[in-house]
Each structure stands twice: as structure tokens, then as C-alpha cells.
Fold each of these.
Amino acid sequence: MADSRITTYEHSAENGIPIECYKFVHRSAMTLGSELKNPKISAVIAMIGDSVASGYPYTDVMPVEAEDCHSWTQCIRDAYKGVRVLNRAIGGDVLENEAARFEKDVIQYCKETIGRYPDICIIEGGANDCWNPRTDNFAEAMTAFDAMVKKCTSLGIVPVIGAYYGLSRMWVEKVVAANPGASLERGWGSDELAIDGILANMTNLYRQVEDYCIKNSLMLCDFARPWWTLTDASDAVWNDLNTDLVHPTDAGYKRAGALWVSALLPELNKFKTGTPPSAATSDMTYLYTSAATDIELTTTESGLTRTEKYFADTISRESITPGSSGSATSCVIKVHKDNAVAKLFEGPPPESPVDVYVYRVHEQDTSLYDTILRGKVGQVSFEGSECELTVDMDSWLSKELPNGMNQYYCNHVLFDHNCKLKKEDYAVEFFIDYVDGKTVIHSRTLAAYPSGYFDGGRLYFGGNVRMISKHEGDAITIKYPFVDIPHNKVIVVPGCDSLFRTCAAKYHNTINFSGIPYVAPTDPEKNPTGQGAYWVDSLVIRRDTDGFVGTISM
């Protein structure tokens, strides 16, 4: 508020004619800037896998860090400057071989090289298991896979799974055709049998790995997807991304690396070394005045002085209507139906509020002003060529009051100040591959997360937000469409069903859980409580004052 305030609004030659300036501020949905692309993270990643993990044909077996700059591991280093990646992959490895050397080549190597275990271990492999006929339905391969995962979890290492399976028949046909006679040596009997058998093997093993990851809440990055849609051998893009139809070129590794950069973000956020700036907002401000010409107004509020230009437009207001005790005071502002603020309400209303400020100034001296109204746009109606914006001023009855219940479900809202989780820590930026209809959005990045991970979450696009009703595979379904079909890059954050098992298994945030899991839920058939205090799937668990979650001895 300016120090020199208007105290009278009489129309006189001495005082001048009072005019009004209107400021509308649309608080848009959260956008994540540098915090998403360049978080301050300090972590060590170890990786075990086969030739596509080692970076073949550019690197040798188990390359040192300086040698695998062509692999997708370098994309991780470039995106997260504080992250160190130790590549322990060997070309031609099957899962049983990886498990046999896991202790020596990964665990002990990291301990001897950097003096500690890695924070994250990427386990990639299985493609080589699929080239030969199998009789054990990959039982030995999955046992080896399970052994590496359990070794990681026993040491506090976060396992992350990488999948590189050629689930495209056209791809398998190209590989077999490029290696004539090799299928006979592998024992298939003919190239046609090899094509059918290899594709069946890869599909089978991929589904087993995918089911295992879902069951154990592990992250799965399917980085073969960039090649699935490239089915024309004469396609220049295909040739640019593949050296021998199996191993990527340098450009191909970078394409796969982009998926890894996005997929690793939720896990890497746990190793932040500093608090980044808060998520930026992209506010839109609309400035109008009832004066005959544009004017500049200098205002000082909360110690901040700014000079803004208000544009002359057809705009007026009715008298401010005082409310009864505790109710809101309102005012109707009238603008043309083509006004930019009115356009915000033509389709679905904005998800975030539109704030309104009205200043009264003197025409002869615009340094003298008074703030006569502050509020938010509530109801909007269109009639003829006119739009009426009903602005509600704050009242104590409209304030959100704190509340809490002794109930089965958590009282907090995900990412609020009581939950204490940060939205930007779990945000995922991805490029939309295509939109099915208006509400189903597809992206290969989404397939790197277990189906259901983003259920109940939010999708942000163009300053607007929509709730995600379903996440399955590479697709999410939003509850209602955007005015414009989303395209290019968007941001999603996961949701929460307010259950203790979700808080523990998905967010590791049980120290801030406000519900009481041993109180019977309102729908015990839908959410069975078991026989113990806290239940996560079939495990009875407990938490202590430091947030540690462990099993209870029965």
C-alpha cells in the first residue's frame, strides 16, 4: 500500500477523476525447471549386464568409466553431474553368468574401488538367454535374477532393472537374416523355427521379469522400445540407430540413455545433496484499466515495488456487496466475452485460481492509489457479448480449517506440508508418443514404471493439470481432456491411496503417516487389515520414531 492514500473520491477539478485498474493473476499449475533436469545429486551407480550395457561395439569388456562414453551410461553422467557410474557389463553374458560373478565384479569391486557399496545397481540382461532353445522355462535364469536383486536389497542397494528384449517379430527376422546359418548352430533346426522360437523366448522372459518387478515394486526400464516401431530395414533412422541390428550406434545409445535419465530420477532424488529452489510457477498476469487511455501504475506491496502498464479496455464493476457475519463479500466485474480473462472460463474452468486486484487511482496523479478489492474469481457467466466475473473476497468461514480423524486412512494430502514429500522429487518429465482419443496418453517412458504407479496422480501440461485415473504399461488415462490435446513434453507425478502399505512400499514415508492402520477401514473387504498391526501385502511391519520400517516377529 502506498504511503500517500486517497481519502476522498469526490469528483472535482482539484482532486481529479477517480479511475480504476484491474489486475488478474492466473496462478498456473506447477512447472518444474532446472530442478527436474539438473538436480543436485551425489550417488554411485553400478551396472551389470551384457553387450548392450557395456557399450559394444565402442567399448571392451567391463570398460573403465573413461572408455564407455559412447554407452547410454554417459547420458546418465551428463544429466546428473554428481552421479558416478561403474560399468561392470560383459558382452554375451546370460543371467546365470551375471549372478555367478555379481559378488566379485560388482559388490567387491565397488568396495575396493570407491570404498563403499553403490547406492543403485542396474541389473540388465536376459537377451542372450533367449537365443537358444530352452527346456526349463527360464527357471534357472529367473533364480539367478532373483539372487542378484536380493543381494542388493540385503546391502541397502537399490536394484533397478533394465529390459532389452526384441519383442518385434520384424526385428527378430532381421537379426536371423543378418546371421545366416547361425540359427542351425544354435539348435533351432531352421531359420523359420529360430524366428518363432527366439520371439517366443523373449516374450516369455520379458513377461516373467515384468511380473517379478511388479510383485517386488522394482523399477523396470524397457529401453528396447525406441526400436520397436522401426520396422523398415531401409529406413535411414533405423540404420542410424543400429550397427548390426542388435547393438545400437552412438546415436542409438543416446536415445536409450534419454529413457534411463527419466527412469532413474525418482531413485536418484533420494540422494540429493542440497535443497533445490522451490518449483517455479508460470503465472499469467492480465492488466486493464477503465481509463480512456493506457496508464502506468507503480504499486508497493509486501516491500516489493513494481511499475506495470494497464491497458484501456471495456471493463466495469458493480458495487461491492458486503456479506453477513462470516460470509464472503463479493463484486461483479464485467468484461467483453472476448476478453483474455473471460477466455480462461470458456471451456473447463482453470484448475488453479484467478486472483483479482482492483486499484482506484487519480487521473491527474497516478502515484496516489488505494486497493479497494482483493479476491478470487468464483462464478462466471456469459450473456450476449458480455462476461460477468463474480469475485469473492476472503472470509474466515471460507478458510480451510485443519482437521484430523482417528481412521484407517492417512489424513494428509500427498505432497502437502504435513506429508512432507516434495512434488518435484517425484515428478517425471516425458515426451508424448501419441494420444488415443483425448484422454489416453502414450509414452515409452511410462512403461519404465510398474503399471499403476501413476494411478491417482497428476499430469501437468500448458499451465493446466488433470488427474490420472489409470496407468497401465505405456499409457495413462486422464479423467477429462485438456482444451488442447497435449503434445511434446509433459510432467506427471504419482498419486497415493492414503493406505499405510502404499506409504511404506512406494514412498518410504511412514514416519509422516497420520492414519491408524489397526483401526478397521470403512470397507474391510476392499482393504483387509490382516491380523497384525501394520500390513503391507502379506508382511507384518512396524515403524519406529526414526521412520525405520521392519518386520515384526510373530
Note: The two ends are 65 Å apart (CA to CA).
Amino acid sequence: MKKSLKITLIVVGSILLLLFVATLLVSPIATAYINKNGKDLIGRTIQVDNVSVNVYTGHLEVLNLKVLEDDDKSVFVSFDTLDVKARLLKLLASNVYLDHITLAGLNVNVIQNGEDFNFNSIIDFFASDEEEVEEEDTTASDWKISLYNINLSRGRVYYADKGINTDWDLEDINIKIPGFVIGGNESTDAGITLQMADGGTLNTQVNYDINTNDFTAMVKLNDFAISNIKAYLTDMMRIGRFDGILDADITAKGNLDRIEQLAILGNAHLKDVDIRSNTNQPVIALRSLNLDNANIYLDKELYDIGSITIDGLSSRYDLYANDDNFSRFLIDEEPSPADTAAAAPDTASAEESEMEVHLRHFSLTNSQFTYADHTLPDRFEFPITNITINANNLSLSGTNAATIKASLPHGGSAFIDWSGNLDDLYSFQRLKLDIKNLQMADISPYTVAYLGWPFEDGTFSFLSLNTIRHSQLDGQNHLDIYKATVGKKRKDVDAEINIPLKAALYVLKDKDEKIQFDVPISGNIESPDFNYMKLVWKTLGNLLVKVATEPFRLAGDALGISSKDEQFIPVDPAQQELSSEQYYMLERYASAMNSVPGLKINLQQQLDAASDSTTLQLAEKRNAQVVAHLTQQMHVPAAQISTEISLIDKLKKPGYFITGKIEEDQQ
């Protein structure tokens, strides 16, 4: 053998032997190097059991790797196994090609404290001391990245925000991506599965066509505990409890080049909701809320929803002197000047496009609502149960309609028929309210506050038809009261309207103890002084004042002297004694005064102004006879009777003109 050939063979053999030895040593060397130089590599201590590299097959395996926190004690990131298989010869064709990437047992702990994160030191480690400005390279790259069979199994991500004292624990994270190509024209499918420690799973599937930039993203959320987001609402609400389970199935379709044309389709279901304030006061609860067949098209500003069904809703409204329970629950932040400017409406853009909302069907069943008014002298709490609402084809444009049914305390019922505009509430609204068999005692706190009298018994029906056109309210209210019984006048209450209610109700009752009258209401609902309830009570109070000041004109059957003619008793100026007809008429007034508490009458004897002294003496004698008969024979208290003589020029018909007035009775 020639010497030169022999030398060549020795050199080549030596190189091959060195390469073979190197391949045997590269894994332990890499393992040792990483364990020793972690802080030089990423600024943190790295611990790894084994790094196995096969340069011939392109296989990399890393076992039990940990990246520690800055304290060199806590674990920031760890995983059990990383297994990567690459085709090295593809690099010659400018293609990074991985047959598979498997990552098992990944565990990531992210801690936030204000604006600081526990990975900030790693970012700072790689940050350059001086920012380098590089010109953007717009030249198309020849490189292609092909990643296949990407699998993440048994992953876990823990996130804690120390600033708001909340944490999220996502367990059993599984991600499967069949293929992902950058620089080619292949489609990519990716799927992610998350299991949350507090309950719930998240499944996602993404289909992406790299050639057209079209994508479809599907998200399924099962049994998600909404308490996970409670901490993020504490800046807006004073929350004590925030429980409920959410399921959602949502699909988003679009194109990355035209993201404004994104379409979102899906369903959402919420159940077992219990929201309370930080004082444990109930705010809202419900058994279930289902949103089905929602279609949202961002470019068209179209929100088309098939149905919203709510079951078992429970809420309450507590009114206080200066606020209510909802304003106490919500945190009202003062807007900054920048926020105010940003919130200013853009008239031009508003004219260009209008949001369209269509709700095909809305229903609410088995629900209840409690109204409590703490501004009254007596506590008023009024539960409304068995609430049912049905509406079809609701939209922001045009006229909508809905019906509402509910049960009231002690066997009462309410029915509401509504139609109106949602886009402009002041333009047109029509509301028909029909209340039956409402117990008067249930609304007694309001009669005490406004009138000073409590109701102890009686039933009440109310038919109200209210129409709003261009902010002007026209309300027609018909009241039907049966056997109303009033208690003692409340001396401790400074009522807004002081009237002898007990007597006024007696006057209004017919022979069957029914009271019926109309209360019209009108006004501009945009006026800052407009208050519907106050208008009702004011109008009702004015009616009762008329009853008190003009009882005979409004008495009906209760007094038996309701006609205008019966408020006059004819008298012959020359008669010496009262006639039987006059006694009969007086006895009817006496009966009324004995029956109606506080009723006083004035008998004005009208004579011609030319009457002589004898006629006037006879008139005074008749007045004495009238008073004596009413007080001695009919047992009417003298304080309830007054008489007078009036001389009138050219009087056509002499006699007694009788007026009545009901003065307040404290009993």
C-alpha cells in the first residue's frame, strides 16, 4: 500500500472516529453545559436531567427541564419531555422541516404584581442596551417553515394577579396541530383543549388557509365557572358573590385581510347565576339564560339573534332617598376629559351606518321581582311573582310589541300590553296596564306618605292606558275600589296632601260600597320635574279635595242628596213654621252628617234685598227652628251646623241654599 493512501485512510478514519466520539459526547456535554450556564443563556438557572441529540436522524429529546425564578428556588417553567424530529437535509433546500414536536407535562407559572411580571427579568436579559434601528427588509424570503404533528399534552398554566388577588389555574391543556406551514400554500388546522381547575373545559379548532388568508375558528366552552372573572369586575362593581356556569359554542369566520368583515355565529347558555353585593345583598339570580342562533356581522353592524329565553330570574329594586341598590352596587368613575371627548357622538359616521338588531323571539318565565321603597314613613316592599314576558320580532327600528303577565300579593294579578319604539323611547310608546284584586293594605305605605291615612282593608283594580307621542304623555287611568277601610289618621306623618280621607271615601262609595273614578295624567316625560307616581297621587288628591269641599255635588248614592236641585230647600218668606217637605229635606242632611265624619253644612237663607223687618225676623226664627230640629231631634252636633241670612237683589226664588264641607277627622 502506498504511503500516501495509508496516510489518507488514517486521517479519514481518525476524523470519522472523532465524529463518532463527538456524537456520543454531544448529549452529556449539552446536558452539562445547560445545567452550568443557564444564567448565561437566558439569565435564569436551568436544571435538566438529560439532553439527547442525534445528529444523524435529526432527533432531539429533553427530559425534565426546569427554569427557576430569580430566587433560584421557585419554578417558573418546567416540562417532562420535549421530543423533536427534524429532517436536516431539508435545510439544504431552505426548508425548516419538523416531522413532529411533542411537549408533555408543561407547567408555566405567571405572576403579575401591578405592571410587573415574573418573566420581566428574562425580557430584560435579551433586551439590547441600545436600540438599533434597522431598515425593514421587504425582500421575499426563500425559506419555508414546515411544522407537523405538534402535540402538547398534560399542560398546565397558572396565572396569579397579586394586585387584584385573583388567580386562574388551567389544567390538562392539550393542543393538537396536524400541520403548520409558513411560506407555502398549505392549509393549517389547530385544536386546543383546556381543563380549568375550578371547573370547565375549553375546546378550540382553527382552520386557516395560508394561500387565501381565510380562517374559521370554533370555540366550545363547557361548564365554565363565571366566578373566574369576578376579580376583573371589582373596579366596576362592589361584588361579594359572582357564581354561575357558562356554556358556549361559537364560530368565527373571516379573512385576515378583511378582518372588519368578521362573522360570529353561535349559542350561549348561562345557568345557576347568583350575583350579590359585597354586603351579601342579592342583586340578580337566574336558573337559566339561553341565547340561540346568534349571527353577528361586523361590517354590516347586524346583530341577528334567533332567541333569548330566561327562566327563573330573580331581582329586586331598593329605592333610597338619594340612590338605589343598583347605583350602590356599581362603581361610578368620573370620566376623564379624554374619555369625554372620545365618547362624543360622531354625527357624520352615525349617519353613514346604523346598527341593526333583530331578536326573533324573547321570553321570560317563572321570574320574580321585588320593589322596595325606603323613602316612605312606613317600609314598602312589594313582591311580584310568576312574571312572564313574551315578544317576537324585536328590532331597533319600527314598532315592537310585548305582553307581560304577573301575580301580585294575596291573589292579585297584572297584565301589560306594550308597543313602542326601542330606538327612540320618546317618539312613541303605548302601555296598557290592567291590575286586578290588589289589596289596599299592600299599598298603604303610599297612602300614608301622600295622604296621611293607612288602608286596612279593601280591594283595588286599576286600568291604565298611557300613550307617549314625541315626549308628551297622555294617560287615562280608571280606578275601581271595593269596601275600602281606612285606619286612624297618622299624626306622625307630614302628608303631602291633607284631606279627610275616611269621609271622602264614604262620600264616593255607592250603595254596593264600590268607588269608581278616572284619573287623567299628562305631561312632558323629558321634564326634570316629571314624576308619574307623584302626578297620579296629586291628581287623586285633587279629586278627594273636591269631594271634601263639594260633597253634595259628588256624593252619588252615599248621601242621597246628589243632585244640584236637592241642595236648595224652597221657603215662603211669610211662613211661620217649617213644612213637612222642609223637615224631610233637613232629615236627609242630618242623616248624611251623622254618617259622614267631619261633614259640616251651611244653610244660607236667601231673601230678596227689599225684605222688610218682619220678613227678616221670620227668617231668623226659621234658622233657629232648623238648628233646633237638627240638634235636638236628629242629634246632629251643633258644631256641624251653621246658618246665615243673605239679601239678594231681585231674588227670583227664596229659600235655603245648602253647601257642605268635610273637615279633617283625626279618627
Note: Residues 3-42 form the longest helix (40 residues).
